[in-house]
Design brief:
The structure is a homodimer.
Chain A (H helix, E strand, L loop, with lengths): L7 E6 L6 H12 L10 E6 L2 H5 L15 H5 L6 H13 L9 E7 L5 E6 L4 H13 L3 E5 L16 E8 L8 H23 L8 E11 L11 E3 L16 E5 L4 E3 L7 E3 L13 E10 L5
Parallel strand pairs in A: 1-2, 1-3, 3-6, 4-5, 5-7
Antiparallel strand pairs in A: 4-6, 7-12, 8-9, 9-10, 11-12
Helix pairs in contact in A: 1-6, 5-6
Chain lengths: 299, 299
């Protein structure tokens, strides 16, 4: 990638209608458009799921942030609200093979204690450098990489190659936290500054390596034959996102009071522990491995 | 009230479908009915809003816990799901003038940092003694009194005169916290033990006075002409339920970063700060006054 290639950037909020921080940031940027303007590119904002926001729900018919696979976008038989909305958004920002934006900043929040998480779709050097820069802005920033093949990815962020998800928590769905609001806003401005500096060929100071938490697999709650929950996150693991979980350590607690320990062979670092929206997806937490990754300078 | 008058007790969970602690406690009690049996009365359990629980939402059409006024219960024109469900519950537990249960324990949870709150419908000596006993079970217990005239009250708990709401938090809607689950379970057992001791004429040890937080009024977020939020809870007030808020201290923060201070004349103690379900009700927090109340012994 050469300098001056970022021409349009999209800031997206409210992909999930009950994640209010993104929604109210988008509304704020609409009132203060100057604040997100940069000289070297155009910035647009998008409130992705206004109907779900109006209903104070994650989605109306189906999780919008799982509607962006190429196959689903091409399937006109998928015609519920979010499937139609995804096609409209892809028409505005995409298509994947030739997108109209060069970077997407997608704003999310979680009931898990994930602090300020930058989620990368892959470890492309450009995305890694952006994440490395953001770790210098706030010591709470963690970098999580959950890869899906881009062409098949069902996430909104897969519409273009560059950018990141900013995922902040813990925060209850349907609420705003002033602290997380301000921290997220700061990371957005830092991202825009970074892209602007990139376009100008300016080298911002970034660390030579960073810790990346690479997604391994998800763990579900134990369930009975009808799918009903039989256990909850163990008190010792609650709020312990990004902390080491060793084999034999408590992971879940049944409603009857029995501890279920982690039975893997090596230490993992769980994230999205007790995320409300993941109960229905069969996910109690996502396990990651922690790696130190060298940051390759702009070539 | 004379001894041996508690004949039937109802434990109610899931009045709000996304408050999971009550739901999963009711499901546990269904599997272990012995645990909630006491010799001197009958205990029944009720999952109040199963359809909202299945949808992982507070309610389907209307907040069930606002459907129990005498007027609404008598109005057969009110025929949406929760209004019909309220009439069915009133038929099972009520009617208010001659209820089939003598005490109701209604289980709720909140996104506010209310710890273990016992909400009393009034300061009847019987209810006060119960609350005083519960403060001896767990030091986190706080006693909040939000009075509505019982005949006009729209809360489920108004179906009979005695009992309490157990309101625990902070917890995101649609999640379970193992710690709060176990603490709530302990308070339920203590309540049953207390009612059993009352029936037997046994005097349990209770303090001679307790602090009561009496509800004064509610405060809304500033809103624009279309009703849209203009501010959030100030970071200094977030999670500070039951702590003193003095005139001139920060209460809200606008999205533009301006602090709004509390403008009352005297110190108050806010509760339900940043409760997710109250955004749509126009409530950012409830202000209370703290009073020391003497506990009158059984006559």
């Amino acid at each position: 990638m050469n300098a001056n290639q970022i021409k349009r950037v999209a800031i997206v909020g409210g992909t999930h209608g009950n994640e209010f921080i993104g929604v109210y940031l988008i509304k704020k940027f609409a009132r203060f458009p100057n604040s997100i303007e940069r000289d070297t590119f155009e910035t647009m904002t998008l409130l992705a799921n206004p109907k779900a926001f109006a209903a104070r729900r994650r989605y109306i018919d189906r999780d919008l942030n799982r509607c962006f696979s190429r196959q689903d976008l091409a399937n006109l038989q998928l015609a519920n609200y979010e499937d139609i909305q995804a096609k409209a958004i892809a028409q505005l920002l995409g298509p994947k093979e030739n997108p109209q934006v060069d970077a997407i900043i997608d704003l999310h929040s979680t009931t898990a204690n994930m602090g300020l998480t930058v989620i990368l779709p892959d470890e492309h050097p450009f995305n890694l450098r952006l994440a490395a820069y953001l770790t210098t802005i706030d010591p709470l920033v963690k970098v999580y990489c959950w890869s899906q093949p881009r062409q098949d990815s069902s996430y909104l962020r897969s519409l273009c190659q560059f950018g990141c998800v900013i995922e902040v928590g813990p925060i209850a769905q349907g609420t705003v936290s002033a602290t997380l609001f301000q921290q997220t806003e700061r990371l957005i401005h830092a991202t825009l500054d970074y892209l602007d500096a990139f376009n100008r060929g300016q080298a911002l100071s970034i660390p030579s390596e960073i810790a990346i938490y690479r997604g391994l697999k998800t763990i579900d709650y134990p369930r009975d034959s009808s799918g009903e929950l039989q256990a909850m996150i163990h008190p010792q693991l609650q709020l312990k996102d990004y902390q080491p979980l060793n084999p034999g350590e408590p992971m879940l607690l049944t409603f009857d009071g029995e501890t279920i320990v982690y039975q893997g062979r090596s230490t993992v670092f769980p994230v999205f522990i007790n995320e409300a929206a993941y109960y229905e997806k069969g996910i109690a937490m996502c396990l990651t491995e922690k790696h130190q990754v060298k940051i390759i300078r702009n070539s």
